[in-house]
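Researcher: Next entry in the queue.
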Amino acid sequence: AIDTLTRLCSFGSRASASQGLQAQQKWLIDAFGRLKISVEEQSFPGRHPQTGEDKTLVNLIARIQPAWATA
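Model: Structure for this entry, 71 residues:
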């Protein structure tokens, strides 16, 4: 758990729509992909919390499908 938190913190500031947050999201998508967990990206308009600039924000939705649900 500490290694994961250290890695997450290594991306720097993760304010909405920042490069740090985008790097974290890519890392999470890749990590879930290695576990065969599907990830949906839900985009929506918003404002950057520091600049007020209009940005496209993204939620990540990971879906874990238990084996018994597909049998």
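Model: The radius of gyration is 15 Å.
Researcher: Noted, moving on.
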